[in-house]
Design the sequence.
């Protein structure tokens, strides 16, 4: 078992002054909560007690019913990521729950709404907690056909997929496509092929579904053979085993697309040494390769004569983006996503519920780190955390 435990109290109020007015009747009527944090830079995970934040203007307070695990959580712990500066550092960026308090000026949400949202790497906005805070304009409503556990699987994976596809072609942006809900966007790319490396990842599953809404065809993807039914159920038209040698991947893609347009869009939802090179080679000149993790040495653009004709984008899939165009896109997404989920055009990831509430997260992250998770999102229920 991953070592953790230290229980203490830190003030996670962030930089906002605590409101002095009495809490509304719908308030959770509690002042502290449990949270899971990296206790010190590169240090162990620990359960800590922190204050429940008050929602500021434009924000909501949510009782978290489910939070999902992401590779970035263990990567921050292992790397001591420079963008995390305050320790203990609460992690977690996927959450679903019920709105329990509304900040000043919020009109699109009400107390009692079932919602989901993406967190951020500050103690105030992180989601490995029992109560979470979010700007209200990037909170999605959960339709009746989706559970809290399923909804918690959506924000980060969908965020990376949609920023990668529809974000502007700028640093940390995307391929600059027109989103399905924008004018003329639905089915706009009909007849154009896309290749998705890692179709069974959380991100890849959302890329496939968005690519289908955008009209791409064929949708070619890689995964383990046992996940072929999953990726095809989401909209992939062709499946290639992830263990296929790169030269064979190239010839398979060529065979599938022969007679049609060349591949102008490749989404590498793995972005490891084994995939980036072949992802780049599959791409036709003039096309765009979207990466979810920065460029590695094996795509040495200087050694590739056609490199000036291929665009490589390192996407940064968050709606807490400091780039105005991406933030605006995120606001649009969270106003539209309920309808796509209700209609089944967007399906959440399959989920596996871990026991122990927040205390179950470190072992789950170890499974993610050692590639022991296949085609599911690991989810915990924060209020199942023991004393
Ligand atoms: N840039 C961003 O904003 C952003 C956002 C989210 C995630 N990410 C990154 O995106 C990556 C994926 O994250 P995730 O949460 O979607 O992962 P995940 O769901 O935890 O990934 C697990 C899946 O990876 C697949 N996989 C592993 N190696 C593969 C390979 N060589 N080829 C094909 N499939 C492979 C496995 O497929 P099979 O079981 O079918 O073999 C498994 O289903 C991570 O590196 C993560 O850090 C980046």
Sequence:
């Amino acid at each position: 078992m991953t070592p953790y435990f230290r229980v203490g109290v830190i003030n996670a109020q962030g930089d906002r002054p605590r409101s002095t007015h009495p809490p509304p009747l719908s308030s959770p009527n509690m002042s502290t909560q449990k949270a899971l944090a990296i206790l010190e830079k590169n240090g162990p995970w620990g359960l800590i007690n922190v204050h429940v934040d008050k929602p500021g203007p434009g924000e909501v307070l949510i009782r978290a019913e489910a939070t999902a695990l992401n590779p970035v959580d263990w990567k921050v712990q292992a790397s001591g990521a420079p963008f995390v500066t305050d320790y203990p550092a609460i992690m977690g960026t996927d959450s679903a729950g019920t709105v329990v308090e509304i900040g000043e000026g919020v009109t699109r949400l009400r107390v009692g709404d079932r919602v989901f949202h993406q967190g951020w790497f500050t103690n105030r906005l992180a989601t490995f907690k029992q109560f979470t805070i979010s700007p209200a304009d990037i909170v999605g409503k959960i339709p009746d056909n989706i559970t809290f556990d399923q909804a918690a699987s959506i924000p980060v994976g969908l965020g990376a997929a949609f920023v990668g596809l529809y974000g502007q072609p700028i640093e940390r942006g995307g391929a600059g496509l027109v989103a399905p809900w924008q004018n003329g966007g639905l089915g706009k790319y009909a007849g154009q092929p896309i290749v998705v490396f890692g179709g069974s990842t959380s991100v890849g599953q959302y890329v496939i579904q968005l690519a289908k809404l955008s009209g791409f065809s064929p949708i070619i993807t890689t995964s383990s053979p046992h996940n072929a039914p999953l990726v095809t159920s989401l909209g992939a038209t062709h499946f290639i085993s992830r263990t296929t040698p790169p030269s064979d991947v190239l010839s398979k893609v060529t065979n599938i697309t022969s007679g049609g347009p060349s591949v102008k869009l490749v989404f590498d939802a793995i972005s490891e040494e084994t995939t980036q090179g072949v992802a780049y080679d599959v791409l036709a000149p003039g096309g765009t390769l979207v990466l979810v993790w920065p460029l590695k040495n094996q795509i040495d653009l200087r050694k590739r004569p056609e490199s000036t004709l291929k665009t490589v984008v390192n996407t940064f899939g968050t709606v807490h983006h400091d780039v105005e165009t991406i933030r605006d896109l995120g606001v649009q997404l969270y106003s539209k996503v309920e309808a796509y989920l209700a209609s089944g055009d967007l399906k959440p990831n399959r989920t596996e519920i871990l026991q122990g509430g927040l205390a179950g997260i470190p072992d789950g992250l170890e499974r993610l780190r050692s590639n022991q998770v296949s085609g599911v999102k690991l989810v915990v229920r924060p209020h199942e955390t023991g004393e």
About this structure: The first strand starts at residue 9 and ends at 10. The domain at 9-154+348-384 is CATH 3.90.180.10 (Quinone Oxidoreductase; Chain A, domain 1). Confidence is low (pLDDT under 50) at residues 1-28.
